[in-house]
């Protein structure tokens, strides 16, 4: 039986740079929060329109929406989509927080600067990991 010496490495972009949160100035890894929104704003210019999000004080507490699942106009965004507050980890919660579906820092805090610094760090770490794996590959010339 033959074996293949190929190695596979799997990681998310957040896995690669999670230790750099303090250095980069924000939480690393989220869903629809500041991190992902900042990356998208750099990678796909024009795709992010933070102005479409209402101010936090315009979003009703979850208790006003529970049972109606956002069907009341007070629980919808300007385009009519259901909208609830959530806590910092994306779970519905009464009180200050973010929107349903957001797990991470408020996406309104996104910036191209944060996105560019994060992307540079991600690409640098991917490069370093590729070199490490290639150096360990049998027959590698590195």
Structural write-up:
By secondary structure, this protein is mostly helical. The chain has two domains: 62 residues, no CATH class; 45 residues, no CATH class. The protein is 34% helix and 3% strand. A two-stranded antiparallel ribbon has the order 1-2. Helix 3 packs across helix 5. It starts with 12 loop residues before the first helix and ends in a 6-residue tail after the last helix.
Briefly, what is this?
The chain is mainly α and 142 residues long.
Count every helix, treating DSSP H or I runs of 4 or more residues as helices. 5
Low-confidence stretches: 66-74, 87-91, 93-97
Numbering strands along the chain, what is their spatial order in the largest sheet? Answer: 1-2
Separation of the first and last Cα atoms: 28 Å
* Structural class designation: mainly alpha
Rg calc? 20 Å
The count of strands amounts to 2
Largest sheet: 2 strands, antiparallel
How would the blueprint of this fold be written?
Layout: H1 13-17, H2 21-24, H3 34-43, H4 62-65, E1 85-86, E2 98-99, H5 112-136
Antiparallel strand pairs: 1-2
Helix pairs in contact: 3-5
Q: What structural keywords apply?
A:
142 residues, mainly alpha
